[in-house]
Amino acid sequence: MGTRQGEQAALERALEGVRHFESPSMQAALLAPSTTSHPEIERLLDPEKLLGVRVLSSQKLLLYESWAAASSSAQRTVSLQAHSWPAQRERVARWVGAGNERQILIVLPLPGLDGTLSGYVEGVYHFDASKLEREIWRSVLLAIAAVFGTSVLLFPIFLTLLKQAAQQSRRILDANLSLLHALGSATAKRDSDTDLHNYRVTLYAVALAEKLGLPYVRMADLIVGSFLHDVGKIGIPDAILLKRGKLNSEEFEVMKRHPLLGLEIVAGNPWLTGASAVIRSHHEHFDGSGYPDGLSGNDIPILARIFAVVDVFDALTSERPYKAAMDFDAALAIITQDAGTHFDPDIVAVFEQDAKAWHEQTACLTGDALSAQLRVSVEKYFVTA
Predict the structure, then answer these.
(1) How far, CA to CA in Å, does 9 sit from each of 129, 164, 214, 228?
(2) Start-to-end C-alpha separation, the chain
(3) What is the pLDDT of residues 309-344, one digit of tens each?
(4) Four-residue CA torsion sign, 81, 85, 89, 94
(5) How many CB atoms within 10 Å of residue 84?
């Protein structure tokens, strides 16, 4: 037990020990004409608790004192103590003496029948450190036993509540994943007639982020953002979105709106708002030449910088209705060439280390296999209980 905690407990015990003197009958006895003894007071004295009592007038003159079996040195120490005098309805409690012989001095004001201050009573309380500590530890152990006993009795209830909470959390997660899949599929159907790109880029992004040491708490936002990165294309007209040739300047300006349209689509859904960084900024370039905000360098959110690399890589290595798939080496050469202009060079350097293995593991997977792989990441990074 800490010293301060023990001393505070001792002071509280001492205050309890002298509260007898606050009763009207005891105050009447204390303020009665001085006699050689006051039986009412002396019955309270105890060598192990209340050592002595001193009664003083309102002018602080000693009217009466009585001591239990206490040493003369203890009486002398207390009688010589200077202390503050409490106002009515207040108390003073302080330590006197030194070492193991310390006592606690309590001073109480004594109101008269008319309510004015009539005098003071000083009570000297014995402090046995070892006994107090034993009592406090006994109380602590009893409290621990009570808590443990209660916990044992309530454990089945706790277990049921936790199970129900986990089941409810699982249902909410499944509903949100269904929403994620529906939005991703709707986007893919409008753009390339397949949603495999969404699965692949999400798996690539997770692998790259893990390699970079992205904080655990950011991974869920990266997963949702990667899967929904192009959700704003739902709002782009078919004539522009499905055009086979190169877009003219006016058409490209319309296409550049899709990140902001994506933000509008996910707005208001707390589970999807973490995707905003990827949705808004995945077309920003490291040199500041991207859109929609013209951000550069580290001003581009880290999630968007990670995703930009894998998004372009998968676009290059995937077959689309309007192009054939590029082989791995040629695609990686383009990524490397654009490090420092389009992409964060530090992220590209890490991507190069394992890109071939990730591509071999992912590019050949079918829709069901990709979905199963993504489910593993979801189970790892989304809290379900």
Answers:
(1) 10, 43, 50, 61
(2) 38
(3) 999 999 999 887 667 889 999 999 999 999 999 999
(4) negative
(5) 9
Distance (Å) of CA 240 to CA 187, 232, 265, 274: 14, 13, 20, 28
CATH 1.10.3210.10 in the chain, residues? 164-381
Q: Which residues in the chain are classed under CATH 3.30.450.20?
A: 3-132
Report if pTM > 0.90: no
Spatial CB neighbours of 11, under 8 Å, sequence gap ≥ 6? 93, 104
- Dist CA 302 CA 308 (whole Å): 10
Question: What are the tokens at 383?
Answer: 């809290």
Q: What CATH number should be reported for the domain whose range is 164-381?
A: 1.10.3210.10
| 289 token code pair | 């030449």
3-132: in CATH 3.30.450.20? yes
pLDDT digits (tens, 9 = 90+) for 37-80: 666 566 666 666 667 777 777 777 777 777 776 556 666 666 65
Report the C-alpha gap between 121 and 119 in whole angstroms. 7
Residues with Cβ within 8 Å of residue 325, at least 6 apart in sequence: 316, 317, 318, 319
